[in-house]
Specification:
Shape: elongated
Distance between the termini: 68 Å
Helix content: 25-40%
Strand content: under 5%
Number of strands: 0
Structural class: mainly alpha
Length: 135
C-alpha cells in the first residue's frame, strides 16, 4: 500500500509544509507509516528503501501529537484512496499477569523468622479472614 504522486497531491493539504533541509519527503514518511500499519512490523523492520526508521518514527510521533495523522487518515478516506479501520487494544497488569522472572523479582532465599514478628519488617502478604463454618 503505497501512495502515488497523484494520490499524494490530493491529500497534500492535510500535511504540514516542509521547511529547511529535510532528508525525507512527507510522501516517503507517509508511505513508511502505511507500510508499518499494513504489515504490522516493528519500526526497526522497515525496509531500507523508506529511509532511516528513527527519522520516520520521530516525524510520525510529532504528527500524531499534533493531530496531523488524524487529518491525513480522514482525508485518505474522504478521497477514497485508502480504506482504514483503526482498532486499539489496551493490556495492563490487571488483565495479563507477567511471569515472576519478567518483573525483576528478587531470587527466593530461605527466610529465617526472628523471635519477634516486628523485627521481620512489614508483612509481604495480606491475610484475609475466612469463615470456617456457616451460621
Amino acid at each position: 500500500m503505497e501512495l502515488t504522486e497523484a494520490q499524494y497531491e490530493r491529500i497534500k493539504s492535510a500535511l504540514p509544509v516542509q521547511r529547511g533541509n529535510v532528508s525525507l519527503s512527507n510522501l516517503q514518511v507517509l508511505n513508511a507509516v502505511l507500510y508499518v500499519a499494513e504489515q504490522g512490523c516493528k519500526w526497526r523492520g522497515l525496509p531500507k528503501r523508506f529511509g532511516r526508521w528513527h527519522t520516520i518514527y520521530m516525524r510520525m510521533s510529532r504528527w500524531s501529537k499534533n493531530g496531523v495523522l488524524d487529518r491525513v487518515f480522514e482525508k485518505l478516506q474522504v478521497e477514497q484512496i485508502v480504506r482504514i479501520k483503526l482498532e486499539a487494544v489496551s493490556l495492563d497488569s490487571t488483565s495479563i499477569k507477567v511471569h515472576p522472572d519478567g518483573t525483576g523479582a528478587l531470587k527466593k532465599m530461605a527466610h529465617s523468622p526472628s523471635a519477634s514478628p516486628a523485627a521481620d519488617g512489614t508483612p509481604r502478604c495480606i491475610w484475609l479472614p475466612r469463615m470456617l463454618e456457616r451460621p
